[in-house]
Amino acid sequence: MLQRLTITNYAIIDHLEVDFSGNLNVITGETGAGKSILLGALSLILGERADPGVLFDKTGKCIIEGFFKVKKSQVAAFFQEHELDLEDQLIIRREISATGKSRAFVNDTPVNISQLSELSSYLVDLHQQFDTLALGNADFQQEVIDALVNKPAEMQQYHQVFVQYVQVQKKYKQLFDSRDSANKELDYNRFLLEELTDAGFSTHEIEDLESELQTLSHAEEIKNTLNRVYFQLKEDEQPILQQLKQLQSSLQGLAAFHKEMPAIAERLLSSYLELQDIAGEVEQINDQVQYDAQRIELVNERMALGYRLFKKHAVQTTDELLAIKAELTVKVDNVLNLDEQLASLEQEQTRLKEQLLQLAGVISAYRQEQASPFEKQVNVLLAQVGMPNARLKVDMVAGELNPYGQDTIDFLFDANKSNQFAPVGKVASGGELSRLMLCIKSLVAQSVSLPTLIFDEIDTGISGEAARQVGIILKDLAKSHQIICITHQPQIAGKADAHYFVYKEAKAEKVTTSVRLLSKEERVNKIAQMLSGEKPTAAALENAREMLAIPS
């Protein structure tokens, strides 16, 4: 409930404070006095965008504060989600500087505009944002029926499954498009992979073949050199190994005559043993090296294949070629696996769609259950507000699955009992729309938790008995909700629990808007003026007293 609204330096308002009652609050005043300016200021603390052009004094700062009394359970989730302090009284403040900078605070904690808008949705329904044009909007019509259904858990469950369904559909389409694109390259990639697989190169193979070819190509030269080395080491007339052995023995014989001889003899023995090992390895290598023309031909062919693949794939080593083979394997496997993934996603789509259809059927049943009583109640209220021949009909047909079910809901209207129903936005006049909106809101308000409903000239296009009936509806609605209503109709003003008068006055050569709460006698006079003009007649005054149930 909005307890107090303070406005400083906004439009033609210098400063004012308004304390509202918890029931039916009516605001009246001459056209242009600033009644709607109050709601414009209020909309700023409800999250509307700020315009620095609204500053009354361009050198100062605009400050608007709303003091709300709230049930903690009503906004607890919001405060917990945004880590805000929750107190018994909720204070929302909006500040706008001359430079256009805007700041918002909830209980003195800074918040952004989106947070402010979200919070306001728990507090206030402002008719300017929810006006008669919305009656022709399909989303609004569905929201009305769902508010009457009042099954948030079922709606939330459906919405969660629908989000999953949309995500799976999106993933399926992406994979399907990827498969089409990948299939165009699959044959070529598969050919490249088969070519590399058939080549069957192992790690470093081409580099090893290059080395082997060098050996095979110089086999005769290698064997001649190795034979000569081996011969000189072991088989010459005076083999080097034999000479070293003899020299070592001679030095060993001098060991007793010089202290350094044993060490030199030992070193010479080590050289002998090392050359003996070398001779053995030379003999072994010599046995292995053979000129093989057939092997040379095979190696040349293998290397030619490798070099051709090097050039084709723009690489220089066998390992790079094998890396390309691995990449191609992954690409080909991924394409082949896409069909399996698509089949799995298709099954998931089918499962989720069946679940959605089941949940949507439950929601549709709830909506159908509410539609007929809603029609009857609206039509009774329409007769009450001076439209006895008007009829509203809720047309509901099954359509495509959407975030809120599968129903297409349309409000159809017949103003003259002609049984010629048409979409309400096309056939209802402005006055009819205003009264129809009030009837609908009065029914919906019983199913929603919004504590405050604000109507800006809901009485457009009506007067007399119809206006009186609108006042009765608002008065009845105010028993469970705080109502703030701007009106030009005395019949509605007479039903108020608190009547505020908006007027202009000159201050320091500037015209400003002010608001005051009227006393009983002031209300009599203002309502009489609304009935008969600036100078009310005795009959008008008497009529005003009758409206206010004040004895003469």
TrEMBL record:
GO terms of molecular function = ATP binding
What keywords does the record list, in alphabetical order? ATP-binding, Coiled coil, DNA damage, DNA repair, Nucleotide-binding
Name the InterPro entries for this protein.
DNA_recomb/repair_RecN (IPR004604), P-loop_NTPase (IPR027417), RecF/RecN/SMC_N (IPR003395)
The residue ranges of the RecF/RecN/SMC N-terminal domain are 1-507
Q: Which residues form a coiled coil?
A: 328-362
State the SUPFAM superfamilies in the record. Answer: P-loop containing nucleoside triphosphate hydrolases (SSF52540)
Cellular compartments per GO CC? bacterial nucleoid
Membrane-crossing segments per the record: none
Could you tell me the Gene Ontology terms of the biological process aspect for this record?
A: DNA recombination; DNA repair; SOS response
Q: Which CDD domains match?
A: ABC_RecN
Q: Is the keyword ATP-binding assigned to this protein?
A: yes
Q: Does the keyword Ribosomal protein apply?
A: no
Q: What is the role of the protein in this entry?
A: May be involved in recombinational repair of damaged DNA.
Which family does the record assign?
Belongs to the RecN family.
Q: Know the name of this protein?
A: DNA repair protein RecN
**Organism encoding this protein:** Chitinophaga eiseniae
